[in-house]
Amino acid sequence: NGKAIGVRREGKNCVGFPTGNRLINVRVDQWADYGFNPMPTFKRIPWHEAMKEDELILSTFKLNVHKQSRTAAVKWLAEIAHSNPAWMNPETAAKLGVKTGDLVRVESAVGHLVTKAYVTEGIHPKVVSIPTGFGHWEYGRLATLKLKDKKGEYSHGADDPDLNNVWWDDKGVHPNNIIPVVADPIGGSQGWYDTVVKVTKAGPNDKYGDSEGNWEKHVAAYKETMRYAYTGDLHRKMHPEMAAWAGPDSVKHKAGGGH
After folding, report:
1. 119 beta partners
2. Which of 36-40, 73-77, 151-155, 215-219 bottoms out in mean pLDDT, i.e. has the lowest?
């Protein structure tokens, strides 16, 4: 059928990589069809160019004992890590008058949260980072710390006696609410590491665990990023080196509506 099933190198047959030609492709010609540079290139994130002096970039990560959100319901793992403070550099913390354990308010264009600070040299002064997978209101009694709740979805099945051994009362804070729904213009994946935020000491009306987002603002953020997709009005501005591209009407659509 014309599809590559492997590659031959130094007289040996190898499976290769799961690509069309079984090679690592540095140049991806299909990207050029959509007006993107087919070679590896760096593009600055537009909203980072307009950052103010007191703003930081919020990134996320996963602690080594958790996977996505589901492991918050695994008791032995939750016992090891059940909170997710905001990591910040000592230089940044000093400017805010914050030390490890203090409450901080992290505010983005779409919402805010209140969590504890964790001051460490292991992060850049212009970055604040919060582990994901915490602060659940679903996923069962352990993840929500509703250990005695036997109503609704928790009403069926036998009780787990091991829940009586839960000694902690902190489930962390959910960061996703304040991360705008923005999509990579090429691959379409969520932008988890580029949210612009302002971090301040928590105020008198802030309480630990607060996490709120505005749906309309999320939608607006998504629409803004789509302006950089191949069909968007800002596409050519971000990719001036592709001036010869014929435009979105030149893209050939595959059967079934896919691109």
Report:
1. 88
2. 151-155
Ranges of each domain in the chain: 1-33, 46-236
Measured CA to CA in angstroms, residue 23 lies from 4, 13, 31, 191 at distances of: 10, 13, 17, 27
CA distances from 222 to 108, 112, 191, 238, 247 (A): 14, 18, 10, 17, 22
- Confidence at residue 150, expressed as pLDDT on a 0 to 100 scale: 66
Q: How far apart are the C-alpha atoms of 16 and 24, rounded to whole Å?
A: 8
Distance, in Å, from the CA atom of 143 to the CA atom of 141, rounded to the nearest integer, reads 6
Asked whether the beta carbons of 180 and 195 are under 8 A apart, the reply is: yes
Rounded-to-10 torsion of CA 39, 44, 45, 51: 170
Measured from the Cβ of residue 181, the count of other Cβ atoms closer than 10 Å reads 18
CA dist 43 → 193, 235, 247 (Å): 15, 12, 20
**DSSP symbol at 118:** E
112 DSSP β-pair partners = 107, 212
- Rounded to an integer, what distance in angstroms lies between the CA atom of residue 6 and that of residue 206? 58
Query: For the residues 143-149, what does the mean pLDDT come to?
Result: 86
Sign of CA dihedral 115, 71, 80, 145: positive
Asked whether the predicted pLDDT for residue 253 surpasses 70, the reply is no
pLDDT (0 to 100) of residue 257: 47
Residue 39 reports pLDDT greater than 60 = yes
Residue 230 has pLDDT above 80, yes or no: yes
pTM of the predicted protein model: 0.86
């040299």: which residue's tokens? Answer: 121
Placement of tokens 């014309």 in the chain: 2
Strands 56-61 and 127-131: parallel
Does domain 46-236 correspond to CATH entry 2.40.40.20?
yes
Question: CA-to-CA distance for 38 and 35, rounded, in angstroms?
Answer: 9
